[in-house]
Amino acid sequence: MEDKKEQVEIDKKDLDEETLFVVSQTFKALGDPTRIRILNLLFHKEFSVNRIAETLHLRQSTVSHQLRFLKNLRLVKYRREGTTLYYSHDDEHVMNMLKQTIEHACHN
Amino acid sequence: MEDKKEQVEIDKKDLDEETLFVVSQTFKALGDPTRIRILNLLFHKEFSVNRIAETLHLRQSTVSHQLRFLKNLRLVKYRREGTTLYYSHDDEHVMNMLKQTIEHACHN
DNA sequence: ATAAAATATGAACATATACTAATATATACA
DNA sequence: TGTATATATTAGTATATGTTCATATTTTAT
Hints:
Radius of gyration of chain A: 17 Å
Number of domains of chain A: 1
Strand content of chain A: 5-15%
Largest sheet of chain A: 3 strands, antiparallel
Low-confidence stretches of chain A: 1-11
Number of strands of chain A: 3
Keywords (chains A, B): DNA-binding, Transcription, Transcription regulation
Pfam family, one (chains A, B): HTH_5
Structural class of chain A: alpha+beta
Number of helices of chain A: 6
CATH class of chain A: Mainly Alpha
CATH topology of chain A: Arc Repressor Mutant, subunit A
Helix content of chain A: 55-70%
Distance between the termini of chain A: 42 Å
GO molecular function (chains A, B): DNA binding; DNA-binding transcription factor activity
Shape of chain A: globular
Domain HTH arsR-type (chains A, B): 15-108
Oligomer: homodimer
Organism (chains A, B): Oceanobacillus bengalensis
CATH superfamily of chain A: Winged helix-like DNA-binding domain superfamily/Winged helix DNA-binding domain
């Protein structure tokens, strides 16, 4: 914390704190099975919270918590229709990484 | 667990357990600042455990633990020279994702 | 205003994770 | 064999994380 500047300027081999935080948060988002399943579901179309829960056999509150996590990182967005919120993905880069890695993992 | 087959065959919207595990493990590996720093260091050349620890200001045992983690996932490999082990990266796909995401995070 | 439907939130809990100190192991060499 | 060097491992601890239950909030319709 005190030597952040030092590391950035002197030690080019290391990453600065902010980059480190953003990058690790991004990957952390993809590091949980539930979030992967949710994002994978949102790959082709939008889903309401309840539909996600039903489809993946998860509790509504679990889905809601994870969607909040993903939304904080701007990996998903939503639109409202009455009382229903339709979530969809909102980061092409991350979705591409996820897709690639899933394919990479499948035919191995 | 009991309905794994069902999900795989009936509900194409969900991923199978094994894929889910591999994918989440992979991203989990990249979801920790220390491991990111280590992999980032190994981007261009190999490093011994102690050199990694010195360069990143980490304890030897911390580095060793994380290297074991990364090696279990085959993200790094090593060669021995006397008592020294030189570690290097071992997964181009993952290193590319890391690089892209770091760049993506930097100039934002 | 009240009720219903959909979603969000807070607290509690269990588990996972990362770091550390201490110690063990492995290799090289005198 | 004994010592030094480099790395790995173990156990303990603190923190982070994910899920759940219960409840709150928001929106719509009556």
